[in-house]
């Protein structure tokens, strides 16, 4: 499980463990030496049973099928693990002053004093709003994080300050160039696909190379119990079992609607407009008007739980609660916070930093619709509580958000349909959409192991 500890304040989450439990084991078609083809059937107990074996060469004896099956079960299968160094956040990006560190209790926050001490120029209204919001949530974040970190240290999940630091270098592969967004832009120049003649779902088989037009014009699904490798523009990507995805931008959402699924959970990570995005040119941003055009009502099941990641700009938080959710007929229920810590349990940034905060906001709400249907669906589901923390060591890859499946589990029914919008990675049991939906599935982010 990705949840290491659960307290009243929230959850301590192991993001790396969640990825590696997704089942990135590749089951290659079995080929016995000598060109033997094994024919199998599945018993009522779900076990594979060999029914016959044939040889393509005609030379030499054909091995007993039972022996072949036994040999196959002992054959090493390639398994991929996400590289641990991406979660080796050993020290804060910016160290807090000793009196402001997590271990020193929870000092009070005086807005006037912060203005005098940390900045001489005048604050604009947006900055004043951010300071006011921070002052309201600060104590909750400090104390809740401290309790979860203490549990993590006791269990050994986090290491104490006296422990020897890791010698492993946090090396991010710089040669990986994500051209998925550019491919989605190019796809607009492809000849139009006649929907009546085109399949709504592309189910992955044993092939690895997928024509770009097939990938971009319908939802791609891995319905098997093992991971698949797909090759796109010469790059290899891992697709976890029981997952599906649509690679497209916001102008090409029709294939997702053609998928004919209604989702009980929708997680949204919009590319919010901000100064750093404009400077970096890392990915395009969307205006508030464009975000409102996302067809959430058409994708949502009755009583659907909607979760939206929001930056620390109060403008965006107010937009989600006051405009976006009402536009989608979603009732705001709660604000949670993702708190980022190091392996020592320190905030990755000083809690009172004026530049960036060591936390991000999630706004949770439910779709409002037919009262009877919503009431029936809400039976045996706990109400979503206000002010919960998700505390984790963040991935050093930009915008790799922590998994929410485990922390949301108690507020939704089991085996529900889940959707992530603006995703950059895949999850088993989820449908994911975005113009970089395979970004963090690139095979170079993983290490190949062999099961013995």
UniProtKB/TrEMBL annotation:
Q: Enumerate the UniProt keywords alphabetically.
A: Methyltransferase, Transferase
Give the matching Pfam families.
Answer: MT-A70
The family database entries (InterPro entries) matched by this protein are listed as:
DNA_methylase_N6_adenine_CS, MT-A70-like, SAM-dependent_MTases_sf
Q: Which GO terms describe its biological process?
A: methylation
For molecular function, the Gene Ontology terms on record are: nucleic acid binding; RNA methyltransferase activity; site-specific DNA-methyltransferase (adenine-specific) activity
S-adenosyl-L-methionine recorded as keyword: no
Q: What's any one GO cellular component for it?
A: cytosol
Q: Do you know which SUPFAM superfamilies this protein is assigned to? A: S-adenosyl-L-methionine-dependent methyltransferases
Similarity annotation: Belongs to the MT-A70-like family.
Q: Please report the name of this protein according to its UniProt entry.
A: Methyltransferase-like 4
């Amino acid at each position: 499980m990705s949840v290491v500890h659960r307290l009243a304040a929230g959850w301590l989450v192991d993001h790396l463990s969640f990825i590696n439990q997704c089942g990135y084991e590749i089951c290659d078609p079995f080929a016995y030496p000598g060109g033997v083809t094994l024919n199998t059937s599945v018993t009522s107990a779900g076990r594979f049973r060999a029914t016959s074996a044939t040889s393509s060469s005609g030379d030499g004896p054909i091995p007993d099928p039972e022996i072949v099956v036994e040999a196959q079960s002992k054959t090493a299968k390639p398994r991929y693990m996400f590289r641990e160094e991406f979660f080796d956040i050993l020290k804060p990006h910016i160290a807090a002053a000793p009196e402001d560190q997590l271990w020193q209790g929870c000092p009070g926050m005086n807005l006037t004093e912060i203005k005098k001490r940390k900045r001489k120029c005048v604050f604009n209204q947006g900055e004043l709003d951010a300071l006011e919001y921070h002052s309201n949530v600060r104590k909750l974040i400090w104390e809740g994080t401290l309790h979860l970190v203490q549990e993590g240290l006791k269990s050994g999940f986090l290491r104490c300050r006296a422990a020897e630091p890791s010698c492993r270098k946090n090396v991010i592969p710089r040669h990986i160039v994500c051209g998925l967004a550019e491919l989605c832009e190019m796809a607009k120049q492809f000849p139009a696909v006649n929907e009546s003649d085109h399949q709504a779902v592309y189910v992955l088989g044993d092939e690895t190379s997928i024509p770009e037009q097939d990938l971009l014009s319908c939802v791609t699904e891995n319905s098997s119990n093992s991971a698949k490798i797909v090759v796109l523009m010469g790059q290899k990507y891992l697709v976890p079992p029981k997952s599906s995805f649509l690679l497209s931008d916001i102008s090409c959402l029709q294939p997702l609607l053609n998928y004919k699924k209604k989702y009980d959970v929708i997680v949204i990570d919009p590319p919010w407009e901000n100064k750093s995005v404009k400077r970096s040119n890392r990915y395009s941003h969307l205006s508030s008007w464009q975000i409102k055009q996302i067809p959430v009502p058409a994708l949502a099941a009755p009583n659907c739980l909607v979760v939206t990641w929001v930056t620390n700009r109060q403008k965006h938080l107010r937009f989600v609660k006051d405009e976006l959710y009402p536009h989608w007929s979603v009732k705001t229920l709660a604000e949670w916070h993702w708190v980022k810590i190091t392996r020592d349990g320190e905030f990755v940034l000083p809690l009172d930093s004026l530049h960036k905060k060591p936390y991000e906001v999630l706004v949770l709400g439910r779709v409002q619709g037919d009262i009877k249907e919503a009431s029936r669906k809400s039976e045996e589901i706990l109400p979503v509580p206000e002010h919960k923390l998700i505390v984790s060591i963040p991935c050093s890859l930009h915008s790799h958000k922590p998994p929410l499946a485990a922390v949301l589990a108690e507020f939704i029914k089991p085996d529900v349909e889940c959707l992530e919008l603006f995703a950059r990675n895949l999850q088993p049991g989820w449908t994911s959409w975005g113009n970089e939906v395979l970004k963090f599935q690139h095979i170079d982010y993983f290490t190949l192991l062999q099961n013995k």
